[in-house]
Each structure stands twice: as C-alpha cells, then as structure tokens.
Design a protein that fits this description.
This protein is α+β, with helices and mostly antiparallel strands. The protein is built from four helices and seven strands. About 35% of the residues lie in helices and about 25% in strands. The strands form two sheets. A five-stranded mixed sheet has the order 2-1-7-4-5. The radius of gyration is 15 Å and the shape is globular.
Length: about 140
C-alpha cells in the first residue's frame, strides 16, 4: 500500500482540499489516481457539501460545459439544492475534464497526458492537479 498527498490548484481563489490518497500499489494509472483523488476530495468536504459542490465545479467544469450553458444565455453552477456530490459522477466528470485539458496532472514534476498512462508513485513525490485557465486575450 502506498499513500500520496494530492494537491489541487485553481488560479485565484478557493481550491479543493489537499487529500491523502491510499492506493494498493506504487504502480497505477492516471485514471485510478484521479478516481482516488476525487473520492478523497468528496469525502474531505462531506460536512460542507455546498462548498464541496462549488469547488468541484470550479476544478472540473469543462469548456464544453461552459459553452453549452452559454448557448442558453447564462453560465451557472448547479443549484444549491443539488449539492450532494455523487462520487462516481464526479470521477467521470474529472476524467472527461482531464481528457479535454481542463486541468493538468503532475507527478514528481512531470506532466501526465493520458488516462491509461502507467506511473509509479514514490513516497513524498508531489502529485498536483492544476486547473488550466485561458489568459485574457489568448
């Protein structure tokens, strides 16, 4: 069993909590690392599910999601009545966001690009999820 700390970074504001993720072995895939991290993030915020919902949306809402909502005339985060995050739905959304380049994943300073990419986690090696945002004018 290996434990790694996963940090999430979102430019300009609140972010998801850093979580300690336990995996069965050092060798895993990006897909399984994302699954474990998102499940840990949801668990870490169970006491404040409204805030958890908002932070998950900031981290994993894709450009396609935003464009689809913009076509209706307004972009909104889910209603507060829909605050209880479903772990499996959030994991699937995070996988889609990763595939679309909504956030980047770095392990030991190296960016990983594919969900099924194999990686070996080492004790103390940083794991960081970074929300990517377009620059103004870019």
């Amino acid at each position: 069993m290996v434990q790694v700390e996963v940090r999430s970074r979102i430019p300009g504001g609140d972010r998801l909590p850093d979580v300690l993720v336990e995996l069965a072995q050092e060798q895993t895939t990006v897909r399984e690392l994302i699954r474990a991290a998102v499940a840990g993030q949801v668990r870490a915020w169970q006491a404040d599910s409204a805030r958890c919902r908002a932070l998950l949306d900031r981290q994993y809402l894709t450009d396609d999601d935003i464009r689809a909502q913009a076509a209706t005339g307004v972009v909104r985060l889910p209603e507060r009545s829909q605050v209880v995050p479903d772990v499996e739905a959030e994991v699937a959304r995070a996988w889609r966001a990763f595939e679309r380049g909504t956030f980047a994943l770095f392990v030991g300073g190296r960016q990983l690009d594919l969900l099924d990419e194999q990686l070996v986690l080492r004790l103390g090696e940083p794991v960081v999820f970074v929300r990517l945002t377009a620059l103004v004018g870019g």
